[in-house]
Amino acid sequence: MGVRRVLRRSSSEGNTGSWILSSQKNENPITAAETTGDRSKASDRVAYNHTARDHADMTIYWRCGCGKVQLELSAEPWSVGNCHCHSCVASSRFLDEKYKDQENYASSIADGGSAGAFFMPNDVKVLTEELPPMGCLKVGKDGKAVRKYCKCCGTQFGVVMPQMWALNQNLLYSKKEGSEKYVPKMPVNNVMKKFAFSPEEVPEPAFSIAPIRLIISFVSVIINPFGARTEKDVMEKLEVDTSLVEEVPITWE
């Protein structure tokens, strides 16, 4: 019988009303092929299902290029991948060009796409007490200002939503000091090939849009009314004044 992680309301003193992850026996365990060595066969079925994933207790760290912004992550990401859509890649290239001469700059490009790792809000702890100013990008004049970056060194931070955190995967580490890179246990798929600048150059495993289970997982996380939420004060700390949002030009229409 398998074990899955579920969210339940805590009744412990001082934590009443909060949501925590707990283990629960899974009456419908996933198959051995999906849980043991051959993860590639299950990459489009289970690797991106945050309720069935291998969510072993562990600690991962995220830090920007200069180390002034640091996070502690108490679980594996529920999804990892490189997005090759115009908007994501253009934003990453915009920062690459702007900060290419910055000593501690770290790119978010991986295999030609924008590298992302997705976490539940209650798996994320901001270690930096006083965050340096954050920058923010929007794609085109009417784009949404969602892609944040660390102005201290130009490193792309990612997208922070109430329901989830999408972080620059290239800056994940197994050790706090950043001496050892974190290696995902699940396949790193290349998604949105259909909208890539050069679709023929997108490496395998590649998907025209994304694995169906990944799409289902994203939707379920976004619409789940009982899911964990990013604390309001954390969202406020990461806000960027609209007058300071930078526009990434659209060059592909």
Description:
It is built from 4 helices and 15 strands. The protein is α+β, with helices and mostly antiparallel strands. Strands 5, 6, 7, 9, 10, 11, 12, 14 and 15 form a 9-stranded mixed sheet that branches. The protein has a 4-stranded antiparallel sheet with strand order 8-4-3-13, with no helix packed on it. Strand 11 (156-160) and strand 12 form a beta hairpin.
List the helices and strands and how they pair.
Elements: E1 2-9, E2 19-26, H1 32-35, E3 60-63, E4 70-73, E5 79-83, H2 86-98, E6 109-110, E7 113-119, E8 124-126, E9 134-139, E10 147-150, E11 156-160, E12 165-168, E13 172-173, E14 189-191, H3 212-223, H4 232-237, E15 246-248
Parallel strand pairs: 5-14, 9-15
Antiparallel strand pairs: 1-2, 3-4, 3-13, 4-8, 5-7, 6-7, 7-12, 9-10, 10-11, 11-12
Q: Can you count the beta strands?
A: 15
- Biggest pleated-sheet summary: 9 strands, mixed
Helix coverage percent: 10-25%
Rg, alpha carbons: 18 Å
β-sheet strand percentage? 25-35%
Residue runs with pLDDT of under 50 for 5 or more positions: 1-54
Shape: globular
Look at the structure and give the mean pLDDT: 83
* Count of helix runs: 4
How far is the first residue's CA from the last residue's CA? 52 Å
Strand pairing plus helix content: what structural class? alpha+beta
Secondary-structure element pattern, one letter each: EEHEEEHEEEEEEEEEHHE
